[in-house]
Design a protein that fits this description.
The protein is of the alpha/beta class. It is built from seven helices and five strands. The chain has a three-stranded parallel beta sheet with strand order 3-4-5, sandwiched between helices. Strands 1-2 form a two-stranded parallel ribbon.
Length: 140
Amino acid sequence: MGDKIPKQIPGAKEFLEGIKNIGFHIAIWSGTREDILKKQIKALGLDPFIEFSVGNPMDTTAKDKAPLFPQIVDFYKIPKEELIEKSIVFGDGVGDIEAGKEVGVTTAGFIKNPENKDKLENAGADLLVKNFEEFLEKLK
């Protein structure tokens, strides 16, 4: 992805605003380099909704997100087990689901197409959704 700004999923900003307004806390963890991640969040206009974000260190290219989870735990200052219990990893890629599973967090896969659905299912997503509204419905 580099310095390119990714396309925003339609409805993402409204979704983040909505879940923040009902009391959810939003953190982003990404295999993207941290400096680029922060630029992308700002360029997409998502920074008002994101409390914390963490990406890979500037001198790495690894895409494994699980080792970044302790930084989220440190930020929220609650026991790791409590954070795991109260969290949901929401993503559209196999890496998102695998990272969530690796740390023991419930995972929700965002289905973009039939091939993506199969990959998310095979990765073991706990929940699959086609859009943000369906995700909110399943959280109730």
